[in-house]
Design goal:
With 293 residues, the protein is of the alpha/beta class. It folds into two domains: 204 residues, Rossmann fold (3-Layer(aba) Sandwich), CATH 3.40.50; 34 residues. The chain is 28% helix and 25% strand. The protein has six helices and 16 strands. The strands form five sheets. It has a six-stranded mixed beta sheet, with helices on both faces. Strands 7-14-8 form a three-stranded mixed beta sheet. β10 and β11 form a beta hairpin. α3 packs across α4. It starts with a strand and ends with a helix.
Length: 293
């Protein structure tokens, strides 16, 4: 029996027990606990139940925005929804700190994994823009590293125009503030993501993160702290968990409801056709007579 089914690719895996957050643990797509937890949170936010990504209904009237999403789930999301993945430093470009106003109130969901710890200060701007980009019942589903410390740590509060230099074998962040002051920071911390190396600008804590989300306008904030072993979402720590922040009360729009009915009808027709094909099989009819099927 498989220990878990990867909810991103559908593969059966035999590895069980708590798994490192970032270590690849699916034998097929290489997903980890973080990405599987993110997709589980999205499934619950959109459909209220735990579905694997291959089992998501095709609802093209639901519009989604990805911010540097991993390719293993971004491609599959584009097959299910009106979804596009974007990047900060390459095309298709999208900057949460400065989005076009024409995009406001356009999205049913926004996905963001390990992004908000890298955006320039103040991070409130990016969270407020995420809120404005969502439709009235839209949801932001994201992960960000956060600690159990009593307060957040903003490493470069005056970050404005910056770059990196090597000095005596050490990497130094050089920043020019808005007032023109030069600042130097030795040994900045980098994270490796889909766009390469990105400097860690801040370390959240859970309380501070919830306060920021509330301040941005989100009315429903849920931290996914429960493990879900069937999908291999079994964590070895109780922090840096997926969070779903909804702009307003959940409501399924008429277009999405129509799409769901059409998807159900398509699957029902497919099932009927398969049953008719099996009814033409002698062995299937014998199995039914013997009550083996």
């Amino acid at each position: 029996m498989p220990a878990f089914t990867c909810n991103i690719c559908g593969a059966s895996n035999t590895r069980a027990g708590p798994l490192p957050r970032e270590e690849p643990s699916c034998i097929k797509c290489g997903s980890n606990v973080r990405t599987r937890g993110l997709m589980q949170a999205l499934s619950l936010a959109l459909f209220g139940t735990n579905l694997t990504l291959p089992d998501f209904p095709r609802v093209k009237s639901l519009r989604g925005l990805g911010t540097s999403d991993a390719n293993d789930y971004a491609v599959r999301l584009a097959e299910k929804f009106d979804y596009r993945n974007t990047y900060y430093s390459r095309e298709p470009h999208f900057d949460l700190a400065n989005p076009p106003e024409s995009e406001f109130a356009s999205y049913d969901f926004i996905l963001s994994s390990e992004v908000f710890e890298h955006v320039p200060p103040p991070v409130e701007n990016a969270l407020h823009n995420a809120f404005r980009l969502l439709k009235p019942a839209g949801v932001l589903v994201f992960t960000a590293p956060y600690s159990i410390e009593a307060s957040m740590a903003e490493h470069y509060p005056d970050l404005h125009h910056f770059g990196f230099v090597e000095l005596n074998g050490r990497t130094v962040l050089v920043n020019r503030t808005r007032q023109g002051e030069m600042q130097f920071f030795e040994n900045p911390v980098f994270h490796i993501g889909s766009e390469g190396k990105a400097v860690e600008v801040r370390e959240f804590n859970e309380t501070g993160l919830r306060t920021l989300l509330t301040g941005a306008g989100f009315s429903e904030i849920y931290t996914h702290s429960e493990d879900y072993p069937p999908f291999g979402v079994v964590r070895s720590e109780s922090w840096s968990l997926p969070i779903a922040a909804r702009r307003g009360p959940f409501a399924l729009n008429l277009d999405a409801a129509r799409d769901l009915v059409e998807e159900w009808r398509r699957l029902h027709l497919k099932f009927d056709a398969e049953m008719q094909r099996l009814d033409r099989s002698l062995w299937f009819r014998i199995g039914r007579k013997l009550k083996l099927l």
